Amino acid sequence: MFKYILKRIGISILILLGVSVILYTLLRCMPTDYIEQQIIALAGSGVTVTEEYVQAMYRAYGLDGTIIQGYFRWLGNIARLEFGTSFINHRPVLQEIFSADKIGTSFFVALVSTIFEFMIAIPLGITAATHQYSFRDYLVTVLVLMGISLPSFFFGQMLKNIFAIKLGWFPVSGVKDPSLGAEASQAVILVDYLRHMFLPILTVVILSIGSRMRMTRTNMLEVLNADYIRTARAKGLNESKVIYKHAFRNTMIPLVTGLAGLIPSLFSGAMITESVFDLTGIGSYALNAMQVADIPVVMTYNMFLAVLSVTGVLLADLMYAVVDPRVKLA
């Protein structure tokens, strides 16, 4: 097991290097960069921009030279644990990305949404599989397909318009009521925070349960037709024990595969949903950084997700042996 983990870590390092090369090259090949946008803004305000000033800005932001030179300069800084400074806010990248108001908000929304996603999608998938071609199966499938088909910006805006603007049950945007003063109790602050988070979480949950439910239903149908399930029923085992002890355990193997994408999704943020509800999450922040080609922020953010992704894949492979003793790691 230890040798297997070491081997996978070595492969993961090579994968991360390849990802960093692709990301940096794509960022430097964008039609415009941060410096050009600043120059256009200065020229639009009537300021005369000289060629010497332009070259000085490129040197100041580390964007002079070729893409290869810039990549190895960035890689050298990462090797010294220097992640750079944001072009936009002129603050250290790590301080920007891992602040509580950014990654904390996104993590809370993603964690709560994931918990409810599993609590809703898996039982729905099981009941749809055990009642195949029944009214219950068709009803669940139709509702799930409706959720999958709705774009997040449309569905989020619809919930916001109904429950926040028209009914006034929840706040329209943000994460905190600006009218709350320092004298507000912790209970009041917590309730206010949860009210702000309710609609974004509801949006993510409804739009994400579809794929998980369909995966559970498909896997359950495949397992329920297996020979050992028919044997268990023939021996007179209780139907609930057949389904939840014998059948469901084997459907967990494909669900474990989702662990690889689950870990980075907890920290990546829901970009569109956060933008709809004006949340100060990491998703909306990364989207703004991408739009202005803030290379230090975008590279650090994406490499952080890449590390989480390869970690998730490794954990998923290790979990296979836990879920199914027949799986051997070699």
What percent strand? under 5%
- Classify the secondary structure makeup into a structural class: mainly alpha
Architecture per CATH nomenclature, i.e. the level-2 architecture of the domain at 97-323: Orthogonal Bundle
Q: Could you tell me the radius of gyration in angstroms?
A: 25 Å
- CATH homologous superfamily heading of the domain at 97-323: MetI-like
Q: Supply the number of helical segments.
A: 15
Instruction: Name the overall outline.
Output: globular
How are the elements arranged and paired?
Blueprint: H1 2-28, H2 34-44, H3 51-60, H4 67-79, H5 93-97, H6 100-130, H7 135-149, H8 152-166, H9 186-224, H10 227-234, H11 239-257, H12 259-268, H13 271-276, H14 282-291, H15 295-323
Main features:
330 residues; 15 helices; MetI-like fold; mainly alpha
Question: Your description of this structure?
Answer:
- This protein is an all-alpha fold and 330 residues long.
- It has a domain at 97-323: Orthogonal Bundle (MetI-like fold), CATH 1.10.3720.10.
- The protein is built from 15 helices and no strands.
- It has helices spanning 2-28, 34-44, 51-60, 67-79, 93-97, 100-130, 135-149, 152-166, 186-224, 227-234, 239-257, 259-268, 271-276, 282-291, 295-323.
- α7 (135-149) packs across α9 (186-224), α11 (239-257) packs antiparallel against α15 (295-323) and α12 runs antiparallel to α15 (295-323).
- The mean pLDDT is 79.
